[in-house]
Amino acid sequence: MAVTNIIRRTASQVVPFVVRVVGRTQNYHHQSSALFSTVVNRSATSRNFFRNSTPSTFHCYSTKRASSDESLLKVIQAEILCAEESDEQDEAEEVPEGFPFRIEDNPGQQTVRLTRGYQGESIDVEVHMPDLVTGDEDENDNDADGSERANQSQIPLVVRVSKNNGPSLEFGLTAFADEIAIDTLAIKDANVAEDQIAYEGPDFSDLDENLQKAFHKYLEIRGIKPSTTNFLHEYMINKDGKEYVMWLKNLKKFIEA
Q: Which intervals of the chain are annotated as region Disordered (predicted)?
């Protein structure tokens, strides 16, 4: 009997203890599971936040580049419109009656070629873009001899006069308003090797004055005279404007591509 009472008393004390231990263990696992879930959720949230809050460098760069290109295109388009309006105001120069040369003008090139035949000779003229003077230059910058050429617009020309397939005369000219200056004169022989240095003669300005006048007359007879160069001056100004518009449009195409 005593033994039975002892066993019952012991069991009554042990069972609650076991229940408390099991309960604590379950609570611990439950709390641990909840804590782990919280940590995992926070980690995922942090990753998502980092992923969402980090800017795309490529996207940002692309946006800035596109914005910059759009601004550039607007400026180019405005300049094209302005240049085209200026070209419309400048009427194209008509070729004067009796103009002795055939004009070869290829778009995209900065020179114009003139050709003609004269008494068995072939005359070829290379006309370059004009060097324009706006009139803002200092009037005291004239040459010592009182020449006003420094303050005048001008166009450079190269004139070649050849006979058959033999040597040719090559003149370097500068055309001013109603005046043509011969800068250089040389004899060119196509049969002379490139590695041979030919004697090119003295500076044209050092030649005898009568000889200089004679060469001016020589060119005038062949069509190189002020009436011709004055027309070419206006023609090249118009060409310069057209080439500028074409250049701007090519720039625009490149930026848009």
A: 131-154
Put residue 120 in one of left, alpha, beta given phi > 0 → left and psi -120 to 50 → alpha.
Answer: left
Where in the chain does DSSP place strands (E)?
102-104, 111-118, 121-128, 155-163, 168-176, 179-188
Q: Whose CA is closest to 175, among 228, 112, 99?
A: 228
- Residue 178 Rama label (left phi>0; alpha psi -120 to 50; beta): left
pLDDT tens digits, 152-194: 889 999 999 999 878 899 999 999 999 999 999 999 887 776 6
Instruction: Say yes or no to pLDDT of 14 above 60.
Output: no
**3-state SS record for 226-255:** HHHHHHHHHHHHHHHHHHHHHHHHHHHHHH
pLDDT at 147: 55
Structural tokens at position 90: 């400048």
Which SS3 state, helix, strand or coil, does residue 177 take? coil
Residue 235 to residue 240: CA distance in whole angstroms:
9
Amino acid of residue 44: A
DSSP letter at 154?
B
pLDDT for 33: 47
Return the bridge partners of 180, or none: 175
Quote the CA–CA distance of 242 and 240 in Å, as a whole number.
6
Residue 113 has pLDDT above 90, yes or no: yes
